[in-house]
Specification:
By secondary structure, this protein is an alpha/beta fold. It has one domain: P-loop containing nucleotide triphosphate hydrolases (Rossmann fold), CATH 3.40.50. Helix content is 31%, strand content 27%. The chain is built from seven helices and ten strands. It has a six-stranded mixed sheet, with helices on both faces. Strand 4 and strand 5 form a beta hairpin. The longest helix is centred in the last third of the chain and has 16 residues. It is globular, with a radius of gyration of 18 Å. The chain binds adenosine-5'-triphosphate. Adenosine-5'-triphosphate binds next to strand 1, strand 2 and helix 1. This is ABC transporter ATP-binding protein. Keywords: ATP-binding, Nucleotide-binding, Transport.
């Protein structure tokens, strides 16, 4: 393992204004994640998991604190710089897939290349096909998302998240809408990506995933609590 973390959160705070009442969701999160780790963050509904990953990916502004990724102070970038940084460094997989319904699977996977100005007429379709092959969907490349199953759509979403070869993959409940067998194949893809050196940050409320992760954190009361190994072992 590298000695310095690839991702560091320093006293990250997020307060929403709910009506005229402040809602303090993150109360000073400190976290260090190393390259190639598969980190699981779990917590009850409403504990702030999505808020936390939106801070890490620079999607929403922080109230206070810092997010550092590979030497970059993410929230010091202006909006354009942050979007560009995110497009190249972070692949995001959501529970609801969010594929473009009118684009083929191949074009869905190429979308982030286009958005980031990295599209190349020969190399991009080749890479997209390679990624679809990795998730065993190459032969469906020219179909629309509506023609494939939910589990297959999630595999396309993973391929799309990898389009620009980002070092960090964030997954927000990626198996939440899938049956347990399909979920297991999706988790295996994430585990393989971590073995290949990608850093995986997965948010879930599914405690059965804990034994798979390098480290686990529980988000509760606006803070992250490290989950000891004994807590991660399922009861007999
Ligand atoms: N844009 C917003 N404005 C105001 N409040 C918000 C906003 N986004 C989230 N919240 C509130 O912040 C709290 C945390 O929400 P968040 O979506 O981060 O939780 P979560 O742990 O991801 O929940 P779930 O597991 O149900 O998706 C909730 O009380 C939510 O209502």
């Amino acid at each position: 393992m590298n000695t310095s973390p690839i991702l560091t959160l320093k006293q990250v705070r997020k307060t929403y204004l709910s009506g005229d009442q402040p809602l303090e969701v993150l109360k000073g999160i400190d976290l260090e994640v190393y390259a190639g780790e598969f980190v699981l963050i779990y917590g009850k509904s409403g504990s702030g998991k999505t808020t936390l990953i939106n801070m890490i990916a620079g999607i929403d502004p922080l109230t206070a604190g810092e997010v550092w990724f590979d030497g970059v102070n993410v929230h010091r970038l202006n909006e354009n710089q942050r979007a560009r940084w995110r497009g190249r460094n972070v692949g995001i997989v959501y529970q609801s897939f969010y594929l473009m319904p009118t684009l083929s699977l191949l074009h869905n996977v190429m979308l982030p290349m286009d958005v980031c100005g990295l599209y190349h007429p020969r190399r991009s379709p080749q890479r997209a096909l390679e990624l679809l092959r990795m998730v065993e969907l190459e032969e469906h490349a020219h179909k629309l998302p509506s023609a494939i199953s939910g589990g297959q759509q999630q595999r396309v979403a993973i391929a799309r998240a990898l389009a620009n070869d980002p070092p960090l993959i964030i997954a927000d409940e990626p198996t939440g809408r899938l049956d347990s067998i399909t979920a297991a194949t999706i988790l295996e893809i994430f585990l393989n990506l971590a073995r290949q050196g990608k850093t995986i940050l997965m948010v879930t409320h599914d405690l059965s995933l804990m034994p798979l992760a390098s480290r686990c954190f529980r988000l509760e009361g606006g803070l992250v609590h490290s989950c000891p190994v004994e807590e991660r072992t399922p009861a007999p």
